[in-house]
């Protein structure tokens, strides 16, 4: 059998694609003990909106682990291993108690930190509950979301507060999470891919994105103290519109509003969304986070157009959205050996390199870069729209492109120097 051709250079060449390369396991596998999984576990991750924890336990899967979340009657939130340590009954059938959750099978009672409070069938002098704990993870509620830390206990970082959490003049809410049936990396890569705005999101019939985004921008990418940004710059009349979106490792992105026409944009517009792509397992990802809107406007709550699989299949074929474009990549886990990266993918390559370096740092016993402990201090981020007064166009298309990129880079560099 001939070797697989990596770059077919002849018509009707599909036969030359005999073998299918594997996925990039270092970046895609998230289970316990995998290099990427251990890296992701070193950060606080959102698990579930607070309001979803009511009178029943919630079964969850996160980073390949089966868990149960609940709020006991005292208001404390627990995130425990799903299966009871006695004989393994699922605690999704547990009874919410005044303190903790009680297994339905033989009544063992577990506190939110894994302490076993009661083993009612055991003799009164049994010390089993004093010696054994059930597996629990620390949680923290913030802004209407429950966050959890699934990493090594002695490495637990401070809870990071982004500067976008408490923006004057904005209201922020927890969005409704959606589940995407694909690997986390291809979802996150989309956040550094501004080129798709000018194609996918301005297809006829697409909704939720202003036509202004249909004009090709000048695309650029820069590293920042918290990760990286893409910069998408356009001339519009006598103004220059600089659109900046954050990627904040390991799995956060922030982007400015998509739907407002340019004419309505203010001089500075902070991000409309802060979104985590939390791996449920290798082939399922939860999009969860915050939406925000200026005071007086109602932030979006649910998934926008094309952001889930709820539309009929043929409608999705006629007018595909982000969900269809990303989930369909190579059947759920991107095979990088099948790609042919081009100039618009520089941000994707930068992101992969950044993640690979961080994953290897943790694998080799170090601490992950970015989002370090800041003792409650707000962490500067960079996503925003900036409208800059126009400057005369340069003589040629290439020179004008360089000029616009310089204007845009100066905007971001100025923010980095100023600490946002
Ligand atoms: S299996 Fe849970 S108490 Fe027995
Ligand atoms: Fe998109």
The hetero molecules present are: FE2/S2 (inorganic) cluster, fe (ii) ion
The number of helical segments is: 8
Mean pLDDT: 93
**Tell me, what's the shape?**
globular
Secondary-structure element string: HHEEEEEEEEHEEEEEHEEEEEEEHHHEEH
Low-confidence stretches: none
SSE-based structural type? alpha+beta
Our measurement of the CA-to-CA distance between the termini, rounded to an integer number of angstroms, reads: 56 Å
Amount of beta strand: 25-35%
The total strand number stands at 22
Residue share in helix: 10-25%
The main β sheet shows up as: 10 strands, antiparallel
What is the radius of gyration computed over CA atoms, rounded to a whole number of angstroms?
A: 24 Å
Description:
The chain has 420 residues and is α+β, with helices and mostly antiparallel strands. It is built from eight helices and 22 strands. It has helices at 25-28, 35-40, 128-131, 184-189, 313-318, 322-327, 346-363, 397-418, and strands at residues 44-49, 58-62, 65-71, 77-81, 95-96, 101-102, 109-110, 116-118, 139-142, 145-149, 161-162, 170-174, 178-180, 218-224, 227-236, 239-248, 252-255, 268-269, 273-281, 284-294, 378-379, 384-389. Strands 12, 13, 14, 15, 16, 17, 18, 19, 20 and 22 form a ten-stranded antiparallel sheet that branches. It has a four-stranded antiparallel sheet with strand order 5-6-7-8, with no helix packed on it. Strands 1-10-9 form a three-stranded antiparallel sheet, with no helix packed on it. Strand 3 and strand 4 (77-81) form a beta hairpin. The structure holds FE2/S2 (inorganic) cluster and fe (ii) ion. Fe (ii) ion binds at residues 190, 196, 201, 322.
